[in-house]
Automatic annotation (TrEMBL):
Cofactor dependency: FMN
Gene designation: dusA
Binding site for FMN: Q52, K121, H153, N193, G194, G195, G215, R216
Keyword line: Flavoprotein, FMN, NADP, Nucleotide-binding, Oxidoreductase, RNA-binding, tRNA processing, tRNA-binding
EC number: 1.3.1.91
NCBIfam families attached to this UniProt entry: PRK11815.1, yjbN
Name of this protein: tRNA-dihydrouridine(20/20a) synthase
CDD domains, alphabetized: DUS_like_FMN (cd02801)
Organism: Metapseudomonas resinovorans NBRC 106553
Superkingdom in the source lineage: Bacteria
PROSITE patterns named in the record: UPF0034
Entry-linked HAMAP family: DusA_subfam
Function text: Catalyzes the synthesis of 5,6-dihydrouridine (D), a modified base found in the D-loop of most tRNAs, via the reduction of the C5-C6 double bond in target uridines. Specifically modifies U20 and U20a in tRNAs.
Length: 311
């Protein structure tokens, strides 16, 4: 949430044609009672794209899954991993790991409503329900409801006392638990998530798992995605350069500004493109600080592009 908005995804799609991109979590309440066109908005260039839903009322999730399918999304994913208090009060996210039968009902209702895949992202447990048997019970019940793809954030969530940020860092990563799950449910697609930072790590995990999902590293070091098509998807096209990726954003940014938007809505997501280079600080300064003080944002974009020249 707050990161993979449509501008971020449009940018990431310039780097990889094949990586599946996910929206931020959208709650069923927001979609059913709010401005659903705004929450579902995306560009066809972002495909393949999954909409992630937060909720636990089967009929509501079914209605939202239908909205996702109608809007063109390739997949709908149910969030059973978010530990935030705010969502727990509404029975959304990781707390649902304690209610496998309800999650199964949700998944069944969604599957009955759409033809696109319905997938689940979850933890390996929550405090008070963190045994391997309970994890298998959860996955087994959701599988029996028809789900075939599970993305496993390989740490438990602690639902009281830790902030969401701590819940992404404090409980230890236990890849071996996710690997055991793959062995015990070989027919399911099991995608590993949590702490993966390099393509070598991706390759290694792909010997065990059907897929890998990267969160923070893909955001902070987006150029990693430029290498995944060739490295992991056997893509054959030429790898885009950093300069080309930024240049590809220029018409998109121009259109956004013409429609009354501000450049920093978009450029806040490209700051990691210069990561590790001498001009990286200046690049970030131009696109995240100076951008608020200029009447000619596109000139700043061009200055920032100069810093990437040749890369
Ligand atoms: C700022 C922030 C927002 C996040 N929002 C979501 C979300 O909306 N839905 C979700 O499934 N995971 C969300 N996550 C969790 C990530 O998808 C991922 O599971 C977690 O960061 C572990 O993977 P990583 O080590 O590759 O980042 C968020 C993570 C961060 C840092």
């Amino acid at each position: 949430m707050d990161w993979t908005d449509r501008h971020c995804r449009f940018f990431l799609r310039q780097l990889s044609r094949h990586a599946l991109l996910y929206t931020e979590m959208v709650t069923t309440g927001a979609l059913l009672n709010g401005d659903h066109e705004r929450f579902l908005r995306h560009d066809e260039a972002e495909y393949p794209l999954a909409l992630q839903l937060g909720g636990s009322v089967p009929a509501d999730l079914a209605a939202c899954a239908r909205m996702a399918e109608d809007a063109g999304y390739d997949e709908v994913n149910l969030n059973v991993g978010c530990p935030s208090d705010r969502v727990q009060n509404n029975m959304i996210g990781a707390c649902l790991m304690g209610h496998p039968a309800l999650v199964a009902d949700c998944v069944k209702a969604m599957l009955d409503a759409v033809d696109i895949p319905v997938t689940v992202k979850h933890r390996i447990g929550i405090n008070g329900r963190d045994s391997y048997e309970e994890l298998c019970d959860f996955v087994g019940q959701v599988r029996d409801a028809g789900c075939r793809s599970f993305t496993v954030h390989a740490r438990i969530a602690i639902l009281e006392g830790l902030s969401p940020k701590e819940n992404r860092e404090v409980p230890p990563l236990r890849y071996e638990v996710a690997a055991q799950l793959k062995r015990d449910f070989p027919e399911l697609e099991i995608i590993l998530n949590g702490g993966i930072k390099t393509l070598d790590e991706c390759r290694l995990h792909l010997e065990t798992f059907d897929g890998v999902m990267l969160g923070r590293e893909a955001y902070h070091n987006p150029y990693l995605l430029a290498e995944v098509d060739a490295a992991l998807f056997a893509g054959t096209g030429p790898q885009i350069s950093r300069t080309e990726a930024l240049a590809a954003m220029r018409p998109y940014i121009e259109r956004h500004i013409r429609n009354g938007g501000q450049m920093h809505h978009i450029t806040r997501h490209v700051l990691g493109l210069a990561q590790g280079f001498p001009g990286a600080r200046r690049f970030r300064q131009l696109l995240s600080v100076d951008v608020h003080k200029t009447a000619d944002p596109l000139a700043l974009l061009d200055q920032a592009a100069e810093l990437l020249r040749g890369r």
